[in-house]
Structure formats: structure tokens, C-alpha cells
Amino acid sequence: MSLIKRILWYFKPLKTTVANISITAPSRKLAGKRVIVTGGTRGLGYYIAKRFAAEGGEVLITGRDETKTAIVAKEIGCKYLCLDVTHLESFKGFFPIARKELGGQIDILVNNAGISLHEGNMMNVTVEGFSSQIMTNLTGPYFLAQEFLRQYENQIEKSNASIIFMASEKGLFPDELPYGLTKAAIVSLTQGMARRWVTKGIRVNALAPGVTASDMTGYKRDNLYCENNCSRRAYLPEEVAEVAVFLASDTSRCITGQVLTTNMGNHLRCDW
User: Fold this and answer.
1) pLDDT at 225
2) Is residue 257 scored above 70 in pLDDT?
3) Which of 34, 60, 113, 219 allows an S-S link to 234, with CB 3.0 to 4.6 Å?
4) Domain ranges of the chain
């Protein structure tokens, strides 16, 4: 960007956008459900876990920092375990401990943990950064879901289990950056797994949020203005959590293999 453009950008008038959203009153839609939410200490994972607990679910969140995860779990009123989704060897031992913590078999796995390094363009991507995002956003969730299914098959009593992956609208656009590539793979994985496991009573769906207010995106709820979105705003994590409740509940028992976008149609890329 030229010096003149930088100066013009710096002095560009600020626009402020806030959102007034409607959240339904909790009605115990997830009563009796045992749920794991990975990456549940912040961002979308935190709000999904909080909402699931409010809906009567028995929730267990995971995080890498035990102190922080314990504090958040106490705030939400749920269980917690430390888990790094890049440590694949820990998955086999994780689920028996999670079942013990929650008091029974796991009904819902929310594969939420993920990272983005915001490289800007392909020429800024490093091998280390590429590998880190592939491992956290794709490899880890893939093998965690695999272990969830393996343990499910070994259960004597089988429930109507559900897996929810966290995709992104970035997975629906052509993209040269690792984050978008991993989310495109998650979209494909969701549909492939859904087709494979539907006859065994397991539903597999994904959420594909648009830009959402969080530490990772840098957007704050006191100003959600986002010029590149069709709605001209970023979205609130509570909005996404509301949709997640629907996907996890028995209300959506007829839905599998779907990628629900929560971005006001931004992925359609019309001329707004």
C-alpha cells in the first residue's frame, strides 16, 4: 500500500455497528445429553459450552491451560479436562476419563478447537505455520472424531450420537491460506462421515460461521462494523451458539451431512 493510501486509510471516518439479537429462553433442549466441547475456554467454544449447559446438557470443556480451563469451567458450571488436539496419542485415554467425569457415554462431540495465523497471502506462509494449522484444525479433529466413533462402537448401549465440526465460511471460498484449506477439508469430511455413519444412528454436521467477534478475529461487540460482509457487520458468538444448540438437539434428528452457515449469506458472494 502506498504512503498516500496509508494516510487516507488512517484518516478514514470510523463507522460503528452494533447488533440487537434475539436469544431464545433456555428450555432444556439438551437435558440428559453428555457433551464435549474442545477449545471451550474462549471464543465460540466458550459460548457454545455456556449455552449447552444452560440448555440442561452435561458439558465438559477442554483446553490446554489447566488453570484457565478450570476457571472457565467453574464459571460455566461444567466439567473440564486438559487436552491438546495436536497430541493424537492422548485421544484413546481421553474418552474413558471424560465418560467418568460426565457419568456416562458421550452423546455429542463439538470439534471446535482451531487456530488461524492470518498470514494475509500465500507468500507469508511458513512451513511451521502451515503444519500447525493443519494439525490443529484438521488432523486433530479428524482423529478425535475417529476415536469418538471407535469408542461409540464399543458401547453396549448406543444412543443417537452427534458430531459437530467447526468449519468456516472460509471453507466455502477458494483460498490459498492454510486456515481456509483446513476448513474446506472439514466441509468435505463432514459430508463424507455423515454418509458413512448415518445407518448407525450417528449424525455429523458442521457450522460455518462468518467473521465473529472474538479474540482471534479482533472484532469487539461494541463495534461489529465489517465492510467486506454483506450485512456490514461481524456476528456475535451467541448467535452461532444458538444454531449449535439446534444442531445438537433432537429437534434436528432428520439433519445430517449439513454445513450450516451463520453469515447472512456472505458465502454467496453476490454484488452487495
Assistant:
1) 44
2) yes
3) 219
4) 28-264
